[in-house]
Specification:
Shape: globular
Radius of gyration: 20 Å
Number of helices: 1
CATH topology: Jelly Rolls
CATH class: Mainly Beta
Largest sheet: 7 strands, antiparallel
Strand content: 35-45%
Length: 210
């Protein structure tokens, strides 16, 4: 028996679901849709910072701050990454993240915005973002946790190593007035890393939080 499927669109209005000529219904994941809309952003530090050999506290390797006003875009984190620029033989590094809640004050708000390596995965210009991204920021220790898996760097210490990549896939959201910090903990401070973020800036009307 033929049937018709309806869904609610972003405005709350019922619309028909359309299939292909053969009747196939294709589902596209959010990352491809948001990339095509130009919501995707990337930023990466150029200066390497020594790894920590203790739990991160009040200084980050890199911080992403959502400077949107209330009701503005939410940042859905897709990936975080750290490239080992300098390595010690057969050492281990892991990524730690700290989510800073809405209402940052004082030293919790990044004051710099010196990251010039920015890009857009859609091929569109990387501008138009009010995000603030800065290295070595003083932050509140709101709770640091390891994300992803550790990585070995079995090199001789004279050339760059690999990159640690953690696929977040939207499981961390940075609403307006909040921030996310990254740090790398390794088995030696000889390891130096350049860190970065890949995120989507999504209007509240499309995916509100709370």
């Amino acid at each position: 028996m033929p049937s018709k499927v309806k869904v609610l669109n972003e405005a709350g209005t019922e619309v028909d679901v359309h299939g292909s000529a053969g009747g196939m219904v294709h589902v596209v994941d959010y990352a491809r849709i948001w990339t095509a809309k130009g919501y995707g952003k990337l930023a990466m530090a150029t200066g390497a910072i020594a790894a920590l050999i203790v739990r991160p506290s009040t200084t980050s390797h890199l911080t992403l701050y959502n400077a949107e006003s209330g009701g503005g875009k939410h940042y859905f984190i897709e990936r975080v990454f750290a490239h080992a620029l300098v390595t010690d033989p057969t050492e281990i590094g892991s990524i730690w993240l700290c989510s800073h809640p809405v209402g940052l004050q004082g030293t919790g708000i990044p004051t710099g915005n010196d990251i010039t390596v920015r890009n857009s995965p859609s091929g569109k210009a990387a501008g138009s973002s009010v995000s603030v991204v800065d290295t070595a920021e003083g932050v509140a220790a709101d709770g640091w946790f390891p994300w992803g898996e550790q990585e070995f760097t079995p090199l001789d210490g004279t050339v760059p190593g690999g990159a640690i990549v953690v696929n977040i896939r939207g499981r961390i959201v940075v609403p307006p007035g909040a921030a996310l910090s990254i740090a790398v903990v390794a088995s030696t401070t000889v390891n130096d890393y350049t860190c970065g973020f890949h995120w989507f800036e999504v209007p509240e009307s499309e995916f509100a939080v709370g």
